[in-house]
Request: fold
Amino acid sequence: MIQTAIEAALEAGRFLKMSVGKFKHVERKEGQETNLVTEIDKKSEEIIITKIKKRYPHHDFLAEESGSHDIQSEYRWIIDPLDGTLNFTHGFPIFSVSLALEVKGEIVLGVVYDPNWDELYSAEKGRGALLNNKPIHVSNTGKLIESLLVTGFPYSIKSNPDNAIQHFNNFLMEAQGIRRLGSAALDLCYVAAGRFDGFWEVDLHPWDMAGGVLILEEAGGKYTDFRGFPTTIYNKQLLVSNGVIHDRMIEVLKKG
Ligand code: IPD
Ligand code: CA
Ligand code: CA
Reply:
Protein backbone atom coordinates (compact mmCIF):
# COMPACT_ATOMS: atom_id res chain seq x y z
CA MET A 1 0.00 0.00 0.00
CA ILE A 2 2.88 2.40 0.73
CA GLN A 3 4.15 1.70 -2.78
CA THR A 4 0.76 2.60 -4.26
CA ALA A 5 0.68 5.80 -2.20
CA ILE A 6 4.18 6.76 -3.35
CA GLU A 7 3.39 6.11 -7.01
CA ALA A 8 0.17 8.13 -6.77
CA ALA A 9 1.90 11.05 -5.01
CA LEU A 10 4.75 11.11 -7.54
CA GLU A 11 2.41 11.03 -10.52
CA ALA A 12 0.13 13.75 -9.13
CA GLY A 13 3.08 15.89 -8.00
CA ARG A 14 4.75 15.76 -11.40
CA PHE A 15 1.45 16.73 -12.98
CA LEU A 16 1.20 19.73 -10.62
CA LYS A 17 4.72 20.89 -11.44
CA MET A 18 4.01 20.64 -15.18
CA SER A 19 0.79 22.61 -14.72
CA VAL A 20 2.21 25.73 -13.06
CA GLY A 21 0.93 28.73 -15.03
CA LYS A 22 -1.35 26.55 -17.17
CA PHE A 23 -4.58 26.47 -15.19
CA LYS A 24 -7.62 28.16 -16.70
CA HIS A 25 -10.25 28.26 -13.97
CA VAL A 26 -9.99 29.55 -10.43
CA GLU A 27 -13.00 29.21 -8.15
CA ARG A 28 -13.43 30.57 -4.65
CA LYS A 29 -14.47 28.04 -2.04
CA GLU A 30 -17.04 28.18 0.75
CA GLY A 31 -17.73 31.83 0.03
CA GLN A 32 -14.15 32.66 1.14
CA GLU A 33 -12.40 35.18 -1.08
CA THR A 34 -8.91 33.67 -0.64
CA ASN A 35 -9.68 29.93 -0.51
CA LEU A 36 -9.07 28.90 -4.10
CA VAL A 37 -9.51 25.77 -6.18
CA THR A 38 -8.43 25.21 -9.79
CA GLU A 39 -9.13 22.45 -12.30
CA ILE A 40 -5.56 21.27 -11.54
CA ASP A 41 -6.50 20.49 -7.91
CA LYS A 42 -9.38 18.38 -9.23
CA LYS A 43 -7.35 16.61 -11.90
CA SER A 44 -4.59 15.80 -9.39
CA GLU A 45 -7.19 14.25 -7.10
CA GLU A 46 -8.56 12.20 -9.98
CA ILE A 47 -5.05 10.89 -10.79
CA ILE A 48 -4.57 9.78 -7.18
CA ILE A 49 -7.99 8.20 -6.67
CA THR A 50 -7.88 6.38 -10.01
CA LYS A 51 -4.51 4.87 -9.18
CA ILE A 52 -5.55 3.73 -5.69
CA LYS A 53 -8.96 2.44 -6.82
CA LYS A 54 -7.36 0.29 -9.48
CA ARG A 55 -5.49 -1.66 -6.79
CA TYR A 56 -7.93 -1.28 -3.89
CA PRO A 57 -11.44 -0.94 -5.34
CA HIS A 58 -13.16 -1.46 -1.98
CA HIS A 59 -11.35 1.20 0.04
CA ASP A 60 -12.97 4.46 1.20
CA PHE A 61 -11.73 7.97 0.44
CA LEU A 62 -11.85 11.34 2.14
CA ALA A 63 -10.53 13.71 -0.49
CA GLU A 64 -10.52 17.50 -0.34
CA GLU A 65 -12.20 18.18 -3.67
CA SER A 66 -14.62 15.26 -4.03
CA GLY A 67 -15.39 14.74 -0.35
CA SER A 68 -16.17 11.43 1.25
CA HIS A 69 -16.78 8.31 -0.88
CA ASP A 70 -18.04 6.19 1.94
CA ILE A 71 -18.38 2.48 1.31
CA GLN A 72 -17.85 1.37 4.92
CA SER A 73 -14.40 -0.10 4.46
CA GLU A 74 -11.92 -0.30 7.35
CA TYR A 75 -9.43 1.37 5.01
CA ARG A 76 -9.79 5.06 4.25
CA TRP A 77 -7.43 7.17 2.15
CA ILE A 78 -7.19 10.85 3.13
CA ILE A 79 -6.05 13.02 0.26
CA ASP A 80 -4.95 16.60 -0.33
CA PRO A 81 -4.23 16.66 -4.06
CA LEU A 82 -2.59 20.10 -3.97
CA ASP A 83 -1.59 21.56 -0.63
CA GLY A 84 -0.65 25.17 -1.27
CA THR A 85 -3.13 26.15 -3.99
CA LEU A 86 -2.65 29.87 -3.38
CA ASN A 87 1.12 29.51 -3.92
CA PHE A 88 0.45 27.38 -7.00
CA THR A 89 -1.80 30.00 -8.61
CA HIS A 90 0.98 32.58 -8.24
CA GLY A 91 3.68 30.28 -9.57
CA PHE A 92 5.34 30.33 -6.14
CA PRO A 93 7.01 26.93 -6.02
CA ILE A 94 6.01 25.73 -2.57
CA PHE A 95 3.20 23.18 -2.77
CA SER A 96 2.78 19.45 -2.28
CA VAL A 97 0.61 16.37 -2.50
CA SER A 98 -0.39 14.69 0.74
CA LEU A 99 -1.80 11.18 1.20
CA ALA A 100 -2.50 9.03 4.22
CA LEU A 101 -4.16 5.73 4.89
CA GLU A 102 -6.32 5.39 7.96
CA VAL A 103 -7.19 1.87 9.12
CA LYS A 104 -9.98 1.60 11.71
CA GLY A 105 -9.38 5.24 12.64
CA GLU A 106 -5.57 5.00 12.96
CA ILE A 107 -3.20 6.54 10.41
CA VAL A 108 -0.85 3.78 9.30
CA LEU A 109 0.95 5.38 6.39
CA GLY A 110 1.68 8.89 5.18
CA VAL A 111 3.28 10.23 2.03
CA VAL A 112 3.97 13.88 1.16
CA TYR A 113 5.62 14.80 -2.12
CA ASP A 114 7.18 18.16 -2.98
CA PRO A 115 7.62 18.12 -6.78
CA ASN A 116 9.61 21.36 -6.88
CA TRP A 117 12.49 19.99 -4.80
CA ASP A 118 11.72 16.39 -5.77
CA GLU A 119 11.44 15.50 -2.09
CA LEU A 120 9.39 12.49 -1.10
CA TYR A 121 8.55 12.13 2.60
CA SER A 122 7.07 8.86 3.75
CA ALA A 123 6.29 6.92 6.89
CA GLU A 124 4.68 3.71 7.96
CA LYS A 125 3.45 3.38 11.55
CA GLY A 126 6.26 2.09 13.76
CA ARG A 127 8.89 2.07 11.02
CA GLY A 128 10.35 5.58 11.13
CA ALA A 129 10.16 8.43 8.64
CA LEU A 130 12.07 8.81 5.40
CA LEU A 131 13.02 11.63 3.06
CA ASN A 132 13.93 10.24 -0.35
CA ASN A 133 14.49 6.87 1.32
CA LYS A 134 16.85 8.17 4.01
CA PRO A 135 15.77 8.29 7.68
CA ILE A 136 14.90 11.71 9.08
CA HIS A 137 14.63 12.99 12.64
CA VAL A 138 13.38 16.13 14.32
CA SER A 139 15.89 18.68 15.63
CA ASN A 140 17.12 18.77 19.21
CA THR A 141 16.98 22.54 19.60
CA GLY A 142 16.10 23.21 23.22
CA LYS A 143 15.60 26.96 23.39
CA LEU A 144 12.87 28.99 21.75
CA ILE A 145 15.30 31.80 21.00
CA GLU A 146 17.33 29.33 18.92
CA SER A 147 14.24 27.90 17.19
CA LEU A 148 13.00 28.51 13.66
CA LEU A 149 9.21 28.20 13.68
CA VAL A 150 6.59 28.07 10.96
CA THR A 151 2.90 28.89 10.97
CA GLY A 152 -0.04 29.43 8.69
CA PHE A 153 -2.96 31.84 8.81
CA PRO A 154 -6.48 30.44 8.51
CA TYR A 155 -8.67 31.52 5.60
CA SER A 156 -11.00 33.01 8.22
CA ILE A 157 -8.33 35.48 9.39
CA LYS A 158 -10.00 38.51 7.81
CA SER A 159 -13.17 38.03 9.82
CA ASN A 160 -11.45 36.75 12.96
CA PRO A 161 -7.88 38.08 13.15
CA ASP A 162 -7.31 38.53 16.88
CA ASN A 163 -5.88 35.28 18.19
CA ALA A 164 -3.83 34.41 15.13
CA ILE A 165 -2.15 37.82 15.05
CA GLN A 166 -1.60 37.79 18.80
CA HIS A 167 0.07 34.36 18.68
CA PHE A 168 2.21 35.43 15.75
CA ASN A 169 3.34 38.57 17.63
CA ASN A 170 4.10 36.62 20.79
CA PHE A 171 6.21 34.03 18.96
CA LEU A 172 8.02 36.78 17.01
CA MET A 173 9.23 38.15 20.33
CA GLU A 174 10.49 34.78 21.62
CA ALA A 175 11.70 32.71 18.67
CA GLN A 176 14.78 33.07 16.51
CA GLY A 177 12.59 33.42 13.42
CA ILE A 178 9.21 32.54 11.91
CA ARG A 179 8.39 31.48 8.35
CA ARG A 180 5.10 31.07 6.52
CA LEU A 181 5.34 28.59 3.65
CA GLY A 182 1.70 28.11 2.64
CA SER A 183 1.63 24.30 2.62
CA ALA A 184 0.76 22.79 5.98
CA ALA A 185 1.80 19.31 4.81
CA LEU A 186 5.30 20.65 4.08
CA ASP A 187 5.35 22.58 7.36
CA LEU A 188 4.87 19.25 9.15
CA CYS A 189 7.51 17.48 7.05
CA TYR A 190 10.02 20.29 7.60
CA VAL A 191 9.64 19.88 11.37
CA ALA A 192 10.07 16.12 10.85
CA ALA A 193 13.27 16.74 8.90
CA GLY A 194 14.67 19.11 11.56
CA ARG A 195 14.53 22.18 9.30
CA PHE A 196 11.95 23.83 11.53
CA ASP A 197 11.71 23.26 15.28
CA GLY A 198 8.00 23.96 15.70
CA PHE A 199 4.74 24.76 13.90
CA TRP A 200 1.30 25.94 14.97
CA GLU A 201 -1.90 26.62 13.06
CA VAL A 202 -5.68 26.66 13.56
CA ASP A 203 -8.55 25.59 11.32
CA LEU A 204 -6.68 23.00 9.29
CA HIS A 205 -8.59 20.14 7.68
CA PRO A 206 -7.87 16.40 8.06
CA TRP A 207 -6.35 16.22 4.56
CA ASP A 208 -3.86 19.03 5.38
CA MET A 209 -2.54 17.07 8.36
CA ALA A 210 -3.06 13.33 7.86
CA GLY A 211 0.09 12.42 5.91
CA GLY A 212 2.31 14.93 7.71
CA VAL A 213 1.40 14.06 11.30
CA LEU A 214 2.44 10.43 10.87
CA ILE A 215 5.72 11.49 9.21
CA LEU A 216 6.29 13.93 12.08
CA GLU A 217 5.53 11.36 14.75
CA GLU A 218 7.71 8.72 13.12
CA ALA A 219 10.54 11.27 12.97
CA GLY A 220 10.32 11.67 16.77
CA GLY A 221 8.17 14.81 16.84
CA LYS A 222 5.17 15.66 18.97
CA TYR A 223 1.74 17.09 18.16
CA THR A 224 -1.02 18.23 20.51
CA ASP A 225 -3.66 20.91 20.80
CA PHE A 226 -2.60 24.38 22.01
CA ARG A 227 -2.89 23.33 25.66
CA GLY A 228 -0.74 20.23 25.24
CA PHE A 229 -3.56 17.67 25.15
CA PRO A 230 -3.56 14.83 22.62
CA THR A 231 -5.29 15.81 19.41
CA THR A 232 -6.31 14.26 16.12
CA ILE A 233 -6.53 15.40 12.51
CA TYR A 234 -10.24 16.07 13.14
CA ASN A 235 -9.56 18.88 15.61
CA LYS A 236 -8.96 22.52 14.78
CA GLN A 237 -5.80 23.36 16.76
CA LEU A 238 -2.44 21.91 15.88
CA LEU A 239 0.77 22.49 17.81
CA VAL A 240 3.80 20.61 16.50
CA SER A 241 7.39 20.51 17.67
CA ASN A 242 10.58 18.56 18.08
CA GLY A 243 9.22 17.66 21.55
CA VAL A 244 11.91 19.59 23.40
CA ILE A 245 10.42 23.08 22.96
CA HIS A 246 6.79 21.91 23.20
CA ASP A 247 6.13 23.20 26.73
CA ARG A 248 7.67 26.58 25.93
CA MET A 249 5.44 26.85 22.86
CA ILE A 250 2.38 26.08 25.01
CA GLU A 251 3.39 28.89 27.41
CA VAL A 252 3.55 31.35 24.51
CA LEU A 253 0.18 30.21 23.14
CA LYS A 254 -1.37 30.68 26.60
CA LYS A 255 -0.47 34.38 26.51
CA GLY A 256 -2.65 35.21 23.51
C1 IPD B 1 -3.82 25.28 2.81
C2 IPD B 1 -2.35 25.22 3.13
C3 IPD B 1 -1.91 26.41 3.96
C4 IPD B 1 -2.76 26.55 5.22
C5 IPD B 1 -4.23 26.55 4.88
C6 IPD B 1 -4.59 25.28 4.09
P1 IPD B 1 -4.81 24.28 0.51
O1 IPD B 1 -4.24 24.16 2.05
O2 IPD B 1 -2.02 24.04 3.82
O3 IPD B 1 -0.58 26.30 4.39
O4 IPD B 1 -2.39 27.74 5.87
O5 IPD B 1 -4.97 26.59 6.08
O6 IPD B 1 -5.97 25.26 3.83
O7 IPD B 1 -6.10 25.01 0.62
O8 IPD B 1 -3.78 24.97 -0.29
O9 IPD B 1 -4.97 22.83 0.18
CA1 CA C 1 -4.44 21.77 2.12
CA1 CA D 1 -5.68 21.39 -1.31
